[in-house]
Every structure is written in structure tokens, then in C-alpha cells.
Design a protein that fits this description.
Radius of gyration: 31 Å
Shape: elongated
Order of helices and strands: HEEEEEEEEEEEEEEEEEEEEH
Distance between the termini: 33 Å
Largest sheet: 6 strands, mixed
Helix content: 10-25%
Number of strands: 20
Number of helices: 2
Structural class: alpha+beta
């Protein structure tokens, strides 16, 4: 009886897998091709710049500020600190107390071009100079070159808005000891979910003194099959992690079916530490279907138990009749 029950349960799970695989589909993603132009539209480039600097070194660079709207505006360019406030890397452009935000004091924007007016479709390159103190310790330093405009506001409005964009400066001060180190705090894949998307999460900590990059690779294939149905191996996710911070990351499979059993593998690569690899069997099953399976299995168990009881009662009755004879 137990063997038959196991076969029935296995049959139900395999049916779920086949149904899940049949539901796999690719969602088309369309970009917004709207050509509507906003009156005030500020644009900068680049949005990120990485530098390797020495103590006492001075470097001149620039940020391009553009007016891609239909009306002219006045702009302002200035420097602010850059740090993060939590594991989800929400940015903080105000705090100056962190050890890796000192660089905002070293960056000077060209006074002649730090403010100005831009006509529609015009742009300007705004120079800035970074001068590293001669006694600066090695490690990562971060700042933001901000460009903003407040034009376009209604003068009678109660709340005034500011259009602001920032270019993040990542600087490695390489004079002295270089410490590249870190650890994977967690690498998580849930074994059972009720509905898509299927999410793979992790948290990585940078315990060194330089910014480093974590690489995240995910593969998914149906249980009992070698055919990959989701993978980012050709273009793995890469995230920069600044010193003395932890960074949370989540990769989602939005096209996951509503029903199925899959094998999932997530690999995290980080300089200086062994790769973190987790491999799990994941069941995707709607709540109603899970309840249905439980009801079916419960009914089968009750039916089997009742049959066993009836057979035992029948044997007892037959034995009593034979004794009477």
C-alpha cells in the first residue's frame, strides 16, 4: 500500500512539472518609443567615472551637461559626498562622516562654468580638478558631481522642484597597502513559492579598503531535464561594492511558470574568496493547487486506511464463523 501511495504522489508531482514546463513562455518587452519632448530636460554624461590616483596627484576631468528639452534653462554644477545608507544601496549625498567620503573636499569645479545658461539642444563641458592630499591613506574614495536646474517651476506653486543628476566618482588611492577582501553573507534560493517571479537573493560584504565587483550567475532547468529555461551566464549581473559595506542583490525570473519543479543554481564570484554556489530543487505551486494536492493525498490515505480496516474486519468475521462451525 505504501508503495502505491508513493507512486500516486510522485505521479502528481511529475504532472505538476510537465504542466509547469508547458506554461513557460517568453514575455516581449517593449521600450517606450514616445518622441514627446519635455520643455525642461537635463542630461549629463558620463554617469560614472573610475580613477586610480596617487598621493599628491592632481587630475583634471569634466562632466558634460546638456539641454535635451525645448526651453532654455540655467544650470548649476557642484560637488557632494557619495555614500550608501543600507544594504539595498540607497544613496546618501549629504553625509560627510564616513571615511570614504573625504574626496568631495578635494574636487573643485571650474568657477567660470559651474553656473550658466543652456539653450535647447546645447551642451557644455564643465571641467573639475581632483587634488589628492599627500598624506592620504590608501583605499577607495567617492564623491558626486551634481548638475541641477530649478527652471520650469510655477512661481505661484507651494512646492518647488529641482531637476538634479549626478555623476559618481570612484577613486582608488593606490599609494600604500591594498586590501581586497570580503565575504558572502548569504546566498539564498527559496525551495517553495506560491507564484512567480522566482527570486534568487544574496548579500555580499566588502571587508577590504578598495571597491570591488561581485558577479552573480543564475541557471534554471526543469527537474529531470538538462534544458536550461533561464540563465544569465552570457551576461552575468555585476555590482560594485564599496569598502566596509554590505550589498543586497536579488535576481528575478519574471517569465517563470505558475506551476513546475525546477533545479536552480546561483553562483557568486568575489575577488579574494572562494565562489559561493547554491543548488536547490524549487517547487512553484499556486496555493489552490497545493491545497488540492493535500486534499487528494488525504483522501487517498483515508481510502487506503478504510480498505485496510475493512479487510481486517472481514478476516475477523471469517475467523469467527469458522470457529462456530
Amino acid at each position: 500500500m505504501a508503495i502505491k501511495l508513493k507512486r500516486i504522489v510522485l505521479g502528481v508531482l511529475l504532472l505538476a512539472t510537465m504542466l509547469g514546463v508547458s506554461f513557460i513562455h517568453n514575455d516581449n518587452v517593449y521600450a517606450d518609443d514616445s518622441s514627446d519632448e519635455k520643455p525642461i530636460r537635463l542630461q549629463i554624461e558620463p554617469v560614472k567615472r573610475k580613477l586610480k590616483l596617487e598621493r599628491g596627484q592632481s587630475v583634471v576631468s569634466s562632466i558634460k551637461v546638456s539641454n535635451t528639452g525645448t526651453k532654455k534653462f540655467t544650470y548649476k554644477v557642484y560637488v557632494s559626498p557619495y555614500s550608501v545608507v543600507d544594504e539595498k544601496y540607497n544613496a546618501d549625498y549629504e553625509s560627510t562622516i564616513k571615511d570614504y567620503t573625504k574626496m568631495y573636499n578635494w574636487v573643485k569645479v571650474d568657477k567660470k562654468l559651474e553656473t550658466g545658461t543652456l539653450e535647447p539642444k546645447a551642451s557644455v563641458d564643465v571641467p573639475f580638478t581632483i587634488t589628492v592630499p599627500s598624506d592620504m591613506h590608501p583605499g577607495g574614495q567617492y564623491a558626486t558631481i551634481m548638475a541641477e536646474t530649478s527652471d520650469g517651476n510655477n512661481e505661484n506653486a507651494t512646492i518647488q522642484t529641482v531637476n538634479r543628476l549626478g555623476m559618481i566618482l570612484y577613486a582608488d588611492i593606490t599609494s600604500g597597502s591594498i586590501d581586497i577582501d570580503g565575504k558572502v553573507i548569504n546566498n539564498t534560493v527559496n525551495s517553495f513559492i506560491f507564484e512567480p517571479p522566482l527570486t534568487f537573493s544574496s548579500t555580499v560584504e566588502n571587508t577590504g579598503n578598495f571597491e570591488t565587483t561581485a558577479t552573480y550567475t543564475v541557471k534554471v532547468w526543469p527537474l529531470g531535464s538538462n534544458e536550461t529555461v533561464f540563465s544569465n551566464e552570457e551576461s552575468p549581473m555585476k555590482l560594485d561594492i564599496i569598502p566596509k559595506t554590505r550589498r543586497y542583490n536579488a535576481i528575478g525570473w519574471d517569465g517563470a511558470p505558475h506551476l513546475g519543479i525546477f533545479t536552480v543554481e546561483q553562483k557568486i564570484e568575489y575577488p579574494g574568496v572562494p565562489d559561493s554556489i547554491i543548488k536547490k530543487i524549487v517547487i512553484i505551486c499556486p496555493l489552490w493547487f497545493a491545497i488540492l494536492i493535500i486534499v487528494i493525498i488525504t483522501a487517498l490515505i483515508i481510502w487506503l486506511v478504510s480498505r485496510i480496516v475493512k479487510r481486517r474486519n472481514g478476516k475477523v468475521q471469517k475467523s469467527s464463523q469458522e470457529r462456530r462451525i
